[in-house]
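Sequence in, structure out.
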Amino acid sequence: MNGLSMSFTSKWQKEDKGPGFVDKLRGTVRPPTPLKPQIEQANRQIRLLIAQLDGTVNRIKQRDSTIFKNVVSSLAKHDMQHAAVYANELAEVRKMGKMVTQAQLAMEQISLRLGTITDLGEIATTLAPAVSVIRNMKESLTMALPEADKEISEISGLLSNVLIDASTTGGFSLNFDAANEDAQKVLEEAATVAEQRMKESFPEIPAGVLTREEDEGLTA
């Protein structure tokens, strides 16, 4: 009987050394994930996206150059009909160029911000606007880079998860109004710089060959 008692006691003590039921449950529900590696991963994906956008901008410049030459050539031949067709096509290409450039600039701003995060308190003020910017730009980004749709969603999801984990860990509440306001500033600044870059990089379309709608849309 004494041997049986010792065997039971030994088994109980051995089992007691391991994690309890609550500890095991906590571990299986969702183990805590370090936030810094997640932020760095998101930033790496954003840098890749910026590189893709840069490639798209260069392709747009090449196409713009080709179409612009067609406009000039048609005007030299006094072929106003074809000049107008090419000019309107050029206006559409430049709208896309401005949109892609704005997206590229906004992503660069987000990447810079992610690289400056050093503590938990900065996560909310940095990531909330970043998530808002990406969500606002998702449609135009997908239009410019259809193949990057999945990657854009992954970046947005990753940053959103980090933001939720950080707010839970830090015990702070998210100010969505302030985040959206900050995101709007990022987008407006990117749009202003994109407009300036377009003026500096692309020759002006000859007057009189654009339809009124295209002319207004290009200068908007």
